[in-house]
Automatic annotation (TrEMBL):
Pfam families: DUF2264, DUF2264_C. This is DUF2264 domain-containing protein. Residues 18-356, 362-592 form the DUF2264 domain. Keywords: Plasmid.
């Protein structure tokens, strides 16, 4: 029998419907790590791929991140058989004279990130980590934590990391300078926008860090600390839940968007943190359903290596999409999803039946992230205004595409010198030499008018593009007004769908249209009356570029644009229905009027994510 990589996924045989199922899932995911603990148990090294930080910090990451799940599992009465490894590891990792010493924190250091997990676990289950330590080991641990917290933490969700260390010190009765705690609590307030939405720092972007970092840590804080900040955090989480639920499809898939997607089911961390904080932001059955359906979505994906260790990647092992701060231990932030194990079996999160998935039955504009959430036959498409991340690899693909899908994810480009072979799913790419290309990286202006998104952007300083995105579920419409002083080649892509072997798929290219049909899915893009003729192309995208499927097909429209003004109009459709080729595909939306769209753009509200950082909208 041919080996099926998904069979190595420890979640595969688990129905993930009950508390005991979730407990089993945690242990099944943790156990593959056991062979990789060092002799002194302070380090977990999973492979030799590197992150930008040193090897000791990467090994600490592999050691510490599972604590996000193990600590609540134990706090809720679960039997974890390896606490001795963790108490030994902490003793040795914080001992400067031990060969497995983690190394001293120095400046903005990855160790700061991992000490948050340690602080959380010390605060939640001190009897497992603190009490077994010798007096000397306790002194070393306290000295290590006190030393680490004196440094400046990154100006984003990292500020919570020092606060978690401080919570642990409080609970252990250790004296320290609390003014630093108050300072960071105050500074975190500067990232808040409105209606439950934050930025993750002074940046022009909003992504999953708002759910699995900002709100996640704030909700844990609200369980440990009773103050005005905690009350504020809880109120904001209630508001955020009303919007964030729209980022999930009926099958539990979330919207792949932004950085750090290798953390995978950490995306359920917000729903899990609501249970931990005993906060019914939505009816408990809905919270439970959103959490467990998301976990179940991962059960048939080849997300681990053959030994069951979580890989870097999303739907499959894929270093191409990773960040420079992803080590082999990074994916274990996924354990944030296991926070509900800290609450007893009599908690309403567990006693309330799951609410069946509610379809998104209407288009929902979200001003703060600059998205229009659109139903698509059980899946969700987010039309996106185009956020900004020029600091990270593939920032344009992760933040600035025109649309993102819970089913089709998105693709990253594998070669900046391959215009003819680019995927360009949900992007408009330009080239002035037929080799290199440019796409939307940021915007000069962004507005939301009702359900219509407008942006103005420049792939080169002397080329200006105005883009309108209009929902027409399950279709969406794109209109681009391009002003260029020279001729350009242009390629615009629809959604990427999975490609099969043996050329079993249907690829159709024609003047003004292209579509592809796979085993389950249809994807197409058609011209709606541009001022230049466009040719359809059914593109076989480079392998391993899409987050969910390793091989994909992307329908595209390609054209040569002359100097001056050009208007491009297109309609895009992707659905899990191969019969759409003779149904929905034959009924594209009407072509919008460009003058009416320009008037509409002037009436819109600015998108919060793209407002100048530090300025409240």
């Amino acid at each position: 029998m041919t080996y099926d990589p998904a069979s190595a996924n420890p979640l595969g045989p688990n129905p993930l419907a009950t508390r005991s199922d979730m407990q089993r899932a945690l242990i099944d995911l943790f156990n593959p790590l056991l062979p990789y603990f060092s002799e002194g148990n302070a380090r977990v090294r999973l492979d030799d791929a590197a992150a930008h930080f040193d090897r000791a910090a990467a090994d600490l990451e592999g050691f510490a991140r599972p604590l996000w799940g193990i600590a609540p599992f134990s706090a809720g009465g679960g039997h974890f058989a390896h606490w001795d490894r963790y108490s030994d590891g902490i003793a040795n990792g914080t001992d400067p004279n031990h060969p497995e010493y983690w190394g001293a924190v120095n400046g903005r250091d990855q160790r700061m990130v991992e000490l948050a997990a340690l602080g959380f676990a010390l605060a939640l289950v001190p009897e497992k980590l603190w009490d077994p330590l010798s007096s000397r080991a306790k002194d070393n641990l306290v000295a290590y934590l006190i030393h680490a917290r004196q440094f400046d933490y990154a100006d984003n969700n990292w500020k919570f990391f020092r606060i978690f260390v401080d919570i642990a010190l409080d609970r252990l009765g250790i004296e320290y300078d609390r003014s630093l705690t108050r300072q960071y609590l105050t500074e975190l307030e500067g990232f808040y926008i409105a209606d439950g939405w934050y930025r993750d720092g002074d940046v022009r972007r909003i992504d999953h860090y708002i759910s699995f970092a900002m709100h996640f840590y704030a909700l844990i804080y609200s369980r440990f600390v009773d103050d005005d900040y905690a009350k504020r955090y809880r109120e904001r989480a209630i508001a955020f839940a009303q919007d964030f639920r729209h980022w999930f499809g009926q099958d539990g898939a979330t919207l792949p968007f932004g950085r750090s997607l290798t953390y995978r089911f950490a995306c359920a961390g917000f729903w899990s943190a609501l249970a931990f904080a005993d906060l019914e932001a939505l009816p408990w059955g809905e919270i439970k359903g959103l959490c467990l359906r998301h976990l179940r979505w991962w059960t048939d994906k080849p997300i681990t290596h053959r030994d069951g260790v979580l890989s870097i990647g999303y739907g499959y092992p894929n270093l191409l999409m990773s960040e420079n701060y992803n080590s082999a231990g990074s994916p274990y932030w996924a354990f944030k999803a296991f926070l509900p194990l800290a609450v007893g079996e009599d908690h309403p999160f567990w006693t309330t039946p799951e609410t069946p998935p509610a379809p998104l039955d209407e288009t929902v504009p979200l001003r703060h992230p600059g998205m229009v959430m659109m139903p698509c036959k059980g899946d969700v498409v987010a039309l996106s205004s185009g956020q900004e991340n020029r600091q990270m690899r593939f920032g344009s693909e992760k933040y600035a595409k025109f649309a993102y899908s819970t089913r089709y994810g998105f693709s990253v480009e594998s070669d900046e010198r391959a215009f003819t072979g680019g995927a360009f799913d949900s992007m408009l790419a330009f080239s002035d030499d037929g080799i290199h290309y440019r796409v939307r990286e940021s915007n000069d202006e962004v507005r939301l008018t009702g359900n219509v998104l407008f942006s103005r952007w420049s792939p080169w300083p002397d080329v200006v593009v105005e883009t309108w995105l209009l929902p027409s579920a399950p279709w969406h419409v794109r209109v681009h007004r391009i002003a260029t002083p020279r001729g350009l080649e242009a390629a615009e892509g629809g959604f990427a769908i999975a490609r099969r072997d043996f050329e079993a798929d249907t690829l159709s290219s024609a003047p003004g249209a292209a579509h592809v049909i796979g085993a389950e899915d249809f994807s197409g893009i058609c011209d709606l009356g541009s001022t230049v003729a466009r040719e359809g192309l059914a593109q076989k995208a480079p392998p391993n570029t899409n987050l969910i499927a390793a091989k994909t097909l992307v329908p595209q429209l390609r054209a040569t644009i002359a100097a001056g003004e050009t208007i491009l109009r297109s309609a895009v459709l992707a659905v899990r229905d191969t019969s759409a080729v003779s149904g929905e595909w034959t009924r594209p939306p009407a072509s919008p009027d460009i003058d009416a769209l320009r008037v509409l753009a002037m009436q819109g509200e600015s998108v919060s994510a793209m407002d100048a950082p530090g300025r409240m909208p």
